[in-house]
Amino acid sequence: MRKVFLVSSVALCSVSLNFAEPEKILPLPEKVFPEQKAIATSIDKGTAFLKTKQNGDGSWGSPRQTKGMNIFAPAPGSHRAFQLAVTALSIAALIETKGHDPAYAKVIRKGEDHLLDKLPHLRRATPVAIYNVWAHSFGIQALTRMRSRAMEHQENNASRRKQIDDLIRHQIGMLERYESVDGGWGYYDFNVQTKQPSGSSISFVNATGLIAMHEAKKQGIIPPRKLVKRAYDAIQRQRLSDHSYLYGEYLKWQPRRGINRPAGSLGRSHACNLALQLWGDDTVTTEVHQVCLNRLIARNGWLDIGRKRPVPHEAWFGVAGYFFYYGHYYAAFCIETLPETMQPLYKKHLAAILVPLQEKDGSWWDFPFYDYHQQYGTAMALMSLQRCLDKRNAQ
Fold first, then answer.
1. What pLDDT shows up at residue 9?
2. Alpha carbon distance 339, 275 (integer Å)
3. Which residues sit opposite 371 in a β-bridge?
4. What is residue 22's predicted lDDT score, i.e. its pLDDT?
5. What is the Cα–Cα distance from 243 to 272, expressed in whole angstroms?
6. According to the model, what pLDDT value does residue 393 have?
7. Distance CA 93, CA 381 (A)
8. What backbone torsions phi and psi does residue 248 show, to the nearest 5 degrees?
9. Which stretches of the chain score pLDDT less than 70?
């Protein structure tokens, strides 16, 4: 009888996880929405901050401001990865928001030149620390925007466009080189540190890479089908019936652990939903996006309570500070997939969250991280807010 009871319990648990009733869409809270002018002013202040924070060599960020509370980051390779990832995000943000502003042309060009020069040489810091996967993915996103800009500006000749195209292909090759044995990518390998990383596939890292490669695909640079399929399948294995996603595949036997529940997944669900949808999953519907966007807005406190905490995952549901602007960044992309009639309300709510959080110096930040946090937080917030502008007000 005991064996029968155990088998029955497992079966019931499986059914409850795999065949849960669709979650009701949470009502959106009442908000005072910022006007379009306020959003545009916020963007101007943020871009001015990035302009003043650019390093002399064209990069953004540095390993300064150590504070004695930083994450595991073997030098110098980890910081090369952090700086290039932050530089890529800053370039992407400035191209999106100030790409047609002559006052920013020199800043953007200087950043582009740095990325073109340094990104080809980036590798993992150690067999354990594979932070470079972030720079490869965000690098591709910056490069696709650089490519579009190069097509518009005559001073960017054919040889520069070829250099950008070659580097996009190279970065896809780097993602192929550092692919997890499970498919997709992780930023640590705490297993056996093999040539092809043996560390766990991480859901939102997979999503970041897939979204970047889809942007490359839209510009005619096609990533290897096998690379895409393995990352796609890895996200699917980490997908839960309530539209949450496991933090990583190593937690597959703990699906109800706090970090894997809806509140813990607030910063990951949008990136994962978008990646699956872009690569052909028609089960990621408008309703799924609504469920997750309403959840992000109505339960934003669960994500916000981790913001600016110095210890990763110390907040409720294992939320880390650095999920905050990342989560809203990909939520902004998800809003753009909705029918046009539905988008304005979500854009207003997103702006209502982000505009009040801008610091006095024009930056946004969510996690004290050497001298990288203000730059990446600002870049992500800017690209989110740019998507909140009416099309007639966007550049």
1. 35
2. 18
3. 62
4. 54
5. 9
6. 56
7. 9
8. -150, 165
9. 1-23, 154-156, 392-395
pTM greater than the 0.90 cutoff: yes
pLDDT tens digits along 303-336: 999 999 999 999 999 999 999 999 999 999 999 9
Amino acid letter for position 26: L
Q: Does domain 20-386 have CATH number 1.50.10.20?
A: yes
Region of 220 on the Ramachandran plot (φ > 0 left; ψ -120 to 50 alpha; else beta):
left
For residue 219, the tally of other CB atoms under 10 A from its CB is 16
Cβ atoms of 92 and 383 within 8 Å: the answer is yes
As a whole number of angstroms, the distance between CA 207 and CA 223 comes to 15
Where does residue 129 fall: left (phi above 0), alpha (psi -120 to 50 degrees), or beta otherwise?
A: beta
Q: Domain ranges in the chain?
A: 20-386
